[in-house]
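Good morning,

Both structures are done.
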Amino acid sequence: MKRVTGIGGIFFRSKDPQKTKDWYQQHLGLNTDAYGTNFTWRQESDPEQKGATQWSPFSSDTNYFGDTGQDFMINYRVENLEALVENLRQEGVKIVDEIATHDYGKFVHIEDNDGRRIELWEPVDEVYDKYIEGRTS
């Protein structure tokens, strides 16, 4: 069974997320929207299918990452999230929350051996693609 298939997103704390998005747009050319920007790519196993990696600054007081000492969180793309979570439970990995299901995919948070929160995402790329406004290519 495959576990991680790619990076789904890079999320980090920012004192002023809008100002950060504006800075990256002005100086590095990122085409940002309300959430940051999205880097779209083609899947190696099927170049007809798109994949995406989200880049998002979050407010410095977000609790989405868990511990306030954690400045960033990586979202990993996975296949078959339910089976993976069951395997991780059996391996003693801390599962932070229940699997959340949305039309664009399933999500769950786990912690690594250092207590760093990680987000796992089983995407539905065709649906997720419809939500994206800010794209950088």
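Second structure follows.
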Amino acid sequence: MIWVALTALCLVAILVAEYVKKHQVVWVAKPLASLGFIGAALANNALDSAYGQAVLVALLLSWLGDLLLISRNSKLSFLLGIISFLLGHVVYIAAFVILGVHWDIAGYTLIPLALMAVLIGRWIMTKAPAELRPAVSAYIGVISIMVATSVGTSVGWIIPVAAISFYASDLAVALERFVKASFINQLWGLPLYYAAQLMFAYSL
């Protein structure tokens, strides 16, 4: 609970800092908030199982992605952040495979997700800079597969809810970066993101 409290308190600090436009606070609070879900995973014995180790790697890649996405002015940093999160989703998929995936359920789930990926992809591609479009397109595909395989695990509600929350939080990031920057995007997107990561840590 100490690690959950760290994430929650730092999340509040991030949101307040974004609202009052004190971006320098985010450079401190965001890495600490993300450290909270890593600590939570370790506290839940992430190193004691192959699934736990995979989740821990995905969380570490997410921590790196969070750090890279703090900058608002560097397209290279944003691209590297996308790649870091993309790799994190690949590792989450591997974690779900370790648990065991019912591929028929995952396949059926992927059908509406693929349709959503096409619609969202076409919308974002009209907004995103040309140099980011390949990475964004790949990211949309990978996170769609991540959500589908999470549903296919059939081991309880927490893993698919975490994956869907992560997916929704990424929509907030897309709105913030490619459509219109607004505190509202962060107000709902960041809590969903951190809740998702803590749920993955709790799933251990």
